[in-house]
TrEMBL record:
The lineage of its organism: Bacteria, Pseudomonadati, Pseudomonadota, Gammaproteobacteria, Enterobacterales. This is RNA polymerase-binding transcription factor DksA. Residues 36-106 form the DnaK suppressor protein DksA N-terminal domain. It comes from Providencia huashanensis. HAMAP family: DksA. InterPro entries: DksA_N, DksA_RNA_pol-bd, DnaK_N, Znf_C4-type_bac, Znf_DskA_TraR, Znf_DskA_TraR_CS.
């Protein structure tokens, strides 16, 4: 899948989770007006709730599936499965924190602007990644710096 298609699919899946249509900007509309903020608040809250539900399902699944297998191979397979689930849930827990931080920015009318340079991040980028706190240019520069430091 090409990068552009991947981003579009990612954006659509986040919107689908929220049960929201992509935002249609109106001519002359002010950036991050009440309607736009409400749109993103709905997306973020639905995404957070979906992640919380997954965490709850994991806990229930692990409690239901926990067994003391006499066979060491079966026990090891179960431990590996649980370990993978816990790593995924840990990533989701961190994402939930980031979503909550972003919701706070929405409430404070500080959402949608780059933390580095202050320009508008843009509706489409925010629909693709609602927790984005950098514009595409600053994010690209940050990634280049990160690669230079690593290499």
């Amino acid at each position: 899948m090409q990068e552009g298609q991947k981003r579009k699919t990612s954006s659509l899946s986040i919107l689908a989770i929220a049960g929201v249509e992509p935002y249609h900007e109106k001519a002359g509309e002010e950036y991050m007006n009440e309607a736009q903020l409400a749109h993103f608040k709905l997306i973020l809250e639905a995404w957070r709730n979906q992640l919380r539900d997954e965490v709850d399902r994991t806990v229930t699944h692990m409690q239901d599936e926990a067994a003391n297998f006499p066979d060491p191979v079966d026990r090891a397979a179960q431990e590996e499965e649980f370990s993978l689930e816990l790593r995924n849930r840990d990533r989701e827990r961190k994402l939930i924190k980031k979503i909550e931080k972003t919701l706070k920015k929405v409430e404070d009318d500080d959402f949608g602007f780059c933390e580095s340079c202050g320009v508008e991040i843009g509706i489409r980028r925010l629909e693709a990644r609602p927790t984005a706190d950098l514009c595409i240019d600053c994010k690209t520069l940050a990634e280049i710096r990160e690669k230079q430091m690593a290499g």
